[in-house]
Amino acid sequence: MSRSTSPANRWVPITPSDSTDIPQGSPSALICSGAGNVVLVDYLGNEMTRAFAIDTIYPFQAMRVKSTGTTATGIYGLYNS
Asked: Could you tell me the pTM of the whole model?
């Protein structure tokens, strides 16, 4: 299975930061336990804000989750290493 279609075998809490990329690298997807907006940054530095619902898996391979503008809580990166 490819990285994008394989189920996650580990999940890592993500601390939003305006200046630091996700330390474990880009996850295959993101999920949150508290609904709200999430500001994502891709590997080219492009920003995108999306509304996240509780327990919905979002297939974004973000390099960073910014703290400014992010209101969702309990954000986890899903990885299939």
From this structure: 0.89
- Six token digits for residue 30: 């993101």
Chain-centroid distance, C-alpha 19: 15
CA distance 32 to 52: 7
Give 39's strand partners. 49, 66
Q: CB neighbours of 51 closer than 8 A, spacing ≥ 6? A: 35, 36, 37, 38
Whole-number CA gyration radius for the chain: 12
Query: Which residues are CB-contacts of 44 (< 8 A; sequence separation ≥ 6)?
Result: none
Which among 11, 2, 33 is positioned nearest to 79, based on CA atoms?
A: 11
| Tokens (6 digits) for 12 | 């890592």
pLDDT tens series, the chain, 81 aa: 345 567 889 999 999 999 999 999 999 999 999 999 999 999 999 999 999 999 999 999 999 999 999 999 999 999 987
